Amino acid sequence: MTTQEISPDSDSNDADVLLDIQSMELRYGAAVAVRDISLKVKRGQLVAVIGNNGAGKSSMVKGATGLVAPSGGKVLFRGADTTRMSANAKVGQGLVMVPEGRLIFPDQSVEDNLILGAYVHGGLKSAKAKATREKVLELFPRLKERLGQQAGSMSGGEQQMLAIARGLMAEPELLIIDELSLGLAPKIVDQLMGVLSALNNDGLTILLVEQLASYALAIADHAYVIANGRVAREGPSQVLARDPEVMEAFLGRKKPAA
Ligand SMILES: Nc1ncnc2c1ncn2[C@@H]1O[C@H](COP(=O)(O)OP(=O)(O)OP(=O)(O)O)[C@@H](O)[C@H]1O
Ligand SMILES: [Mg+2]
After folding, report:
1. Residue limits of the ABC transporter domain (predicted)?
2. Which of 57, 61, 90, 120 has the smallest number of CB atoms closer than 10 Å to its CB?
3. CA of 54 to the centre of ligand 2 (A)
4. For 101-146, how does the pLDDT look when each residue is reduced to its tens digit (9 = 90+)?
5. What residue spans define the domains of the chain?
6. What are the phi and psi torsion angles at 251 (to 5°)?
7. Which of 141, 136, 246 is CA-nearest to residue 128?
8. Pocket flag, ligand 1, residue 51 (CB < 6 Å)
9. CB of 229 sitting under 6 A from ligand 1
């Protein structure tokens, strides 16, 4: 995607905006986790959200997906106000999240986890769901070999594959991934980033929340830096990756040279 397509002028073309978070505030009781975040994800983009621990990234995506109700602002999905819509209803509309820490069902088999991912569309009954399962298993052959295995007994990387695969089973229009790299070796992170990049090239819109900023910026079109519940920086990833303040604050943990 070119930088022209994500210039401020293109805001006039709202039909392209899939997720539009407008001045979100989100509190846990008296504690304010998100102070004021506005963020747009356009159809076809891969947008990265980076920021330190406790910055409010996960709270923002919980507010966007309906897992926690924002205390202020709006969340538009495909142009409609979904601020008060339940998380389940949003999944049905194509707003799907792979949560931080994966949260797969550890006692269930890999296959059952995939079926649970498709529950909003009635499980694996439809031909479409079966075709999606085939595509997902093609994308992750490791899972295909392990369909009967208890999900919790797989490696961290395999569990993250399953979490993404389960998300894909819900037929997302926008896939939000919170901390892809959590606890994973650099080689696995690289592999999974490659999968996300391929999915995005295939047309899937992705919002990637990621502590390892250099990995996320390497595959994203556009990026937001979140600090203290606000947007501290925003711009094309290539520009942010060269921003001295961003480099100093977030790019200390560099992607190892290939
Ligand atoms: N359920 C909760 N109850 C109370 N406070 C919470 C809750 N969840 C998060 N917070 C607080 O909200 C703030 C933002 O947390 P959040 O998890 O959104 O940050 P984050 O940017 O995702 O951090 P990390 O990089 O560690 O995942 C933190 O101060 C955190 O302690
Ligand atoms: Mg988080």
Report:
1. 19-253
2. 120
3. 7
4. 889 999 999 999 999 999 888 888 889 999 999 999 999 999 999 9
5. 16-94+172-251, 97-165
6. -100, 20
7. 136
8. yes
9. no
Ligand nearest to the CA of 33: 1
Q: How far is the CA of 35 from the centre of ligand 2 (A)?
A: 16
H/E stretch holding 167: helix 156-169
Contact predicate 217/182, CB 8 Å: no
- All residues at 6 or more sequence positions from 110 whose CB lies less than 8 Å from its CB, including other chains: 143, 146, 147, 148, 149, 151, 154, 162
Under 8 Å between Cβ of 82 and 90: yes
pLDDT (0 to 100) of residue 204: 97
Residue nearest to atom 7 of ligand 1 (CA): 28
Residue 66 beta carbon below 6 angstroms from any ligand 1 atom: no
Tell me the two tokens of residue 22: 């407008």
167-210 pLDDT, tens digit each: 999 999 999 999 999 999 999 999 999 999 999 999 999 999 99
Q: Whose CA is nearest to atom 31 of ligand 1?
A: 54
Beta strands in the chain (DSSP E): 17-28, 31-42, 46-50, 72-77, 80-81, 95-98, 174-178, 205-209, 222-227, 230-236
Q: Which atom of ligand 1 is nearest to the CA of 62?
A: 18
